[in-house]
Design a protein that fits this description.
With 237 residues, this protein is mainly alpha-helical. It has ten helices and four strands; from the N terminus they run αααββαααβααβαα. Helix 1 packs across helix 9 and helix 3 runs antiparallel to helix 5. The longest helix is centred in the first third of the chain and has 21 residues.
Length: 237
């Protein structure tokens, strides 16, 4: 069981709203969707059907992108596998189309001083490790398509907090750890915000906790529709 902040004075304030989470609500967040059998069943069935459809219908797109990634930088695989942390701290290998040069991880330390995000997250604009094709597939969110495989096998869900890196989770406080009470997802509240680049890590966590508290079939459907809008308007990073 994930820890819950210990006093009723621990509050979470979602960005753009004045709602505050009570201790009872924080405990519900820590429980995730554990007791909601119908919702968990429908969510899993939808995840399987939707991800399978994406993988099959968009197979030509997958093959074309893989070829483009390889031709742009033939020094590595078109696919990029990385260890991420999922529900209850379980690790898994997340897969994406590779958008960076093969030595990206080795170059990370030299770029840490330029980090534009707070908290444990690293991000800089015009990251020099990103390839030419990588910039396009990030902008169009095409780099995320292989993650539907992670959804199909049960590591992820379509909707849920974005999966964190182990080095990020090692810096989490008790409140941050509540993000791990549900499966990570391809999209979430943060992913659909137009100003997400300016959102602090604390506000990002607020949005994830708000999703866990409000999670339901209709909430998931709305987030998927909003995400499609973000993809069509090229709001990827």
């Amino acid at each position: 069981m994930l820890p819950v902040p210990g006093t009723a004075t621990d509050r979470v304030v979602p960005r753009g709203g004045d709602a505050r989470f009570s201790q009872a609500e924080l405990e519900r967040i820590a429980q995730g969707i554990e007791g909601r059998l119908l919702y968990r069943t429908v969510k899993r069935l939808f995840d399987i059907a939707f991800s399978l459809a994406v993988l099959v219908v968009l197979l030509p797109v997958h093959l074309a992108v893989a070829l483009a990634v390889y031709l742009d930088d033939p020094h590595g695989s078109p696919l990029f596998f990385q260890e991420r942390v999922g529900r209850r701290g379980r690790t898994f290998r997340m897969v994406k189309f590779r958008s960076m040069y093969v030595d990206a991880e080795e170059r990370l330390e030299s770029l840490m001083s330029a980090n534009e995000k707070d908290g444990p997250v690293f991000k800089i604009k015009d990251d020099p490790r990103i390839t030419r094709v990588g910039r396009f597939i990030r902008k169009t969110s095409i780099d995320e398509l292989p993650q539907f495989w992670n959804v199909l096998v049960g590591d992820m869900s379509i909707v849920g907090p974005r999966p964190a890196l182990p080095r990020e989770v090692r810096q989490y406080n008790l409140r941050d750890q509540l993000r791990l009470s549900v499966k990570p997802g391809i999209t979430c509240y943060w992913q659909t915000r137009r100003n997400r680049d300016s959102i602090s890590f604390e506000e990002w966590v607020d949005l994830d906790l708000l999703y866990i508290l409000k999670s339901g079939i209709w909430t998931d459907i709305k987030l998927i529709i909003q995400t499609v809008g973000c993809v069509l308007t090229l709001q990827g990073e």
